[in-house]
Design goal:
Order of helices and strands: HHEEEEEHEEEEHHE
Number of helices: 5
Structural class: alpha+beta
Number of strands: 10
Largest sheet: 7 strands, antiparallel
Radius of gyration: 20 Å
Distance between the termini: 63 Å
Strand order of the largest sheet: 3-4-5-9-8-7-6
Helix content: 25-40%
Shape: globular
CATH class of the largest domain: Alpha Beta
């Protein structure tokens, strides 16, 4: 049974935490990191400092492809800018991905969902086997205009990707285009 003194401390700590979160939200968000780069035309808010941009291979311009790694594991994020026909929708991009991915070993299709953030689109998940291990993939197709789509592909070991699920949604919701003057 908890003592009255311990209960009082617990209530005090809880109330102080709520007050700090309410009146000093920058303390809570101080672990977040904004990715901006002159080579790309977008901004991403990472909810954790564990996300790092990987150096460009030099073959593909960072303007069309950028890769990030979650340092707490083996999850990667690949951001791609895709030019599409004017009538292509995010849902059509999901269908194309499904057709492509069905040829992967051990492919298991997930669900497609509509997605709302700074840019709207569709979200799709799937699993496959690579090197004897199950890999999960979660891809967001975000529409910036009727000719430009961005894909955010999170890929990694299933348990690791699941454990940072709230971060993937937060990152996709924060994804926005830079304002041009």
């Amino acid at each position: 049974m908890l003592t009255t003194s311990f209960q009082h401390r617990l209530v005090t700590i809880t109330l102080m935490s709520i007050l700090v979160a309410t009146f000093f939200p920058t303390i809570i968000r101080s672990q977040a990191r904004t990715f901006k780069n002159k080579s790309v035309d977008y901004v991403i808010e990472f909810p954790s400092t564990a996300w790092r941009a990987l150096p460009s291979s030099g073959i593909v311009s960072p303007r069309t492809r950028m890769e990030f790694k979650y340092t707490g594991g083996n999850v990667r994020l690949i951001v791609r800018r895709k030019l599409v026909a004017a009538d292509v929708t995010p849902s059509e991009m999901v269908s194309r991905r499904q057709q492509w991915a069905q040829h992967l070993a051990g492919y298991i299709s997930g669900t497609e969902e509509t997605f709302s953030g700074k840019l709207n689109g569709a979200k799709f998940s799937y699993e496959y086997v690579q090197g004897g291990k199950t890999v999960s993939a979660l891809v967001y197709y975000l529409e910036s205009d009727n000719r430009t789509m961005y894909s955010l592909l999170f890929r990694g070991p299933s348990d690791e990707l699941r454990s940072i699920g709230s971060q993937t949604n937060s990152i996709a919701r924060s994804f926005r285009l830079k304002r041009h003057s």
